[in-house]
Write a structure and sequence with these properties.
It is globular, with a radius of gyration of 14 Å. It is built from 1 helix and 3 strands. It is of the alpha+beta class. The longest helix has 23 residues.
Length: about 100
């Protein structure tokens, strides 16, 4: 957010991507939990085997999260560089 020091930023939500069976599901979730997460979209894993298609789907889901946050706060969120951070162990279910 323009001119805001990184230490001043507050995470109010996140994009959580989960492989569940043959589907790749995108959720808007609160920072530390998947409780009450909102399903944003799903795509069959067969269609995102190519890294470019995977990036396109993730970008669309990021835009959805941005729209949710902006509609609730009036502020467009900034996104950190992709870290490829894995979900906490308690959230991982393998291929549910």
């Amino acid at each position: 957010m323009g001119g805001t020091d990184v230490s001043e930023r507050t995470q109010i939500g996140r994009l959580a991507m989960r492989v569940e069976g043959e589907w790749w599901n995108a959720y808007y979730a609160l920072p530390d939990t998947m409780n009450d997460a909102i399903l944003l979209g799903s795509i069959r894993m067969a269609f995102v085997q190519d890294s470019r298609q995977k990036e396109i789907f993730m970008a669309m889901m990021r835009d959805a999260v941005s729209a949710i946050i902006k509609s609730e706060t009036g502020i467009a969120p900034s996104w950190p560089e992709p870290e490829g951070r894995r979900a906490p162990e308690h959230e991982r279910a393998g291929r549910a």
